[in-house]
Design brief:
Layout lengths: L2 H7 L4 H11 L16 H8 L2 H11 L14 H6 L6 H10 L14 H8 L2 H11 L14 H6 L5 H10 L14 H8 L2 H11 L9
Helix pairs in contact: 1-2, 1-3, 2-4, 4-6
Keywords: ANK repeat, Repeat
InterPro entries: Ankyrin_rpt, Ankyrin_rpt-contain_sf
Protein name: ANK_REP_REGION domain-containing protein
């Protein structure tokens, strides 16, 4: 992996990336890492760093760098939605590019909304709701999965609870293209507390649903 990619993933100051840009030019920002999905330092910085790195990218490479997509069609906003440390990059990108970037699908149909439901917290979902409303949580992505399916893959059930509170418990039994629901995915990825909570919402018969 090229040096700029390593720096973008590490807990270091953005000045380290700035030094590399000054030394090797802005081309290092958009150079793929050789993987099939071709991540760039911009993508990795959005996933692992805070908004100060995005500001540096814009200053050095221009606004166009913020719209780069990889081979899977994932944009910088998609990667920012996978940032488990902070949603500051995602917020900053929306401020710069507009809220439309939240619902741009990758080549599988997944959006930043889907990914935030799995990788970030309730505060992010509440912020997304304020930006574009709640209909975005019903958008279908890969395998016809909605934000509910993605939230059910999160290690805790905080986002799933929030989505049910906002949109109703019917969302727990919406099937994907294979027939799997948020109930199926929660049983795989979450704990007993989540299953007990689901039982209180819709009863135990849901655990007999075939996927």
């Amino acid at each position: 992996m090229p040096l700029a990619h390593h720096v973008a993933c590490k807990p270091v100051s953005s000045s380290c990336l700035e030094l590399l840009i000054d030394r090797f030019g802005t081309g290092c920002l958009t150079y793929g890492n050789g993987r099939l999905i071709r991540e760039t330092p911009v993508h990795l910085a959005a996933q692992h760093q805070d908004e100060s790195w995005m500001k540096l990218v814009k200053e050095k490479g221009g606004r166009g760098c913020l719209r780069i997509a990889n081979e899977d069609g994932k944009t910088v906003a998609h990667f920012a939605a996978m940032n488990r440390k902070s949603n500051s990059c995602l917020k900053w990108l929306v401020k710069e590019l507009g809220s439309d970037c939240l619902t741009v699908p990758d080549k599988y149909g997944d959006t930043a909304v889907h990914l935030a439901a799995q990788h970030q917290g309730i505060e992010s979902l509440e912020w997304i709701k304020r930006q574009i409303g709640t209909d975005c949580f019903r958008l279908k992505g890969r395998l016809d999965r909605t934000a509910f399916h993605f939230a059910a893959k999160k290690s805790d059930n905080s986002n799933l609870k929030w989505l049910v509170k906002e949109l109703g418990n019917d969302c727990l039994t919406v099937p994907d293209s294979y027939g799997n629901t948020a109930v199926h995915l929660a049983a795989k990825h979450q704990g007993i507390e989540s299953l007990e909570w689901i039982k209180r919402q819709i009863g135990a018969d849901c655990f007999r649903l075939k996927g």
